[in-house]
Model the fold of this input.
Amino acid sequence: MNDRFKSLNLPGGTLALTDCVDWVPSLPDECIQLVAIDPPFFTGRIQTGSGPDAPKYRDSWAGGKGAYVSWLIDRIGGMWDLIAPTGSLVVHLDWHAVHAVKVALDEFVGEDRFQNEIIWYYQTGGASKKRFSRKHDTLLWYTKSDQYVFHPERIQIPRTEKAMHRARNPRGARISIEDNHKNPDDVLHIPALNPMSNERTGYPTQKPVELMEHFVLALTNEGDTVADFFCGSGTTLVAAQGLGRKWLGCDVSAEAVAVARERLNQGEANAL
Ligand SMILES: C[S@@+](CC[C@H](N)C(=O)[O-])C[C@H]1O[C@@H](n2cnc3c(N)ncnc32)[C@H](O)[C@@H]1O
Done:
């Protein structure tokens, strides 16, 4: 066992308690089809979950935004080498630092590797009186090469009633009446976890499994490996396991790894 990290092999993959910067160099190059990470967003806060002994993680950097971006790019640099030639990197951020990380990533991996800025519109309640309410996160998608796995047909969404009305009208028809689904665009309408959701673990900033299933289905095939090196409560790993993919996950927080381990051991993904 390497004394810089503790790792645990479960039936679907490996979970490690470590700073990802220590674990990533020990993994073989080009072994992962999708690296999907949801790192701290540079909110300047201690993120605190819910329930007794609420889990927490620190999301502030003494050196400001420049220090944060260098910290993150340093870690993503090692992850990039692990991605297979047909694979993808998805980085989940929000308005606090996505602009600075996009500039740094374009420079680091090459602007030509950038595919999409995907908006996750999470439709939570509450409205700001000071500015337009902030209701979305941004996910940056880069591919290792031009020959990448991409299956939008697996995540099609229903066409709107308006589009289907036009399909029924012989003069306005641009699509056939049978064609009632379409490939999604770069804005995802997926609800955030509500406080009563069975999926909720109490871990701070937990994301919905449905969001991560979207990327796992579109960017990988069954049997491929998916990694999340800031796994938190293990949402990406749960999505990967439920869809028949292998997974690798780590987090620097023992609380996070304990929650992820429980979710993965319970095979929760199969029940969703
Ligand atoms: C936004 S949360 C991830 C939430 C996760 N997607 C979920 O659904 O539960 C970010 C996570 O990154 C972890 N983290 C922060 N620094 C890290 C590092 N250097 N290596 C690994 N994990 C780290 C934090 O402990 C936290 O759990």
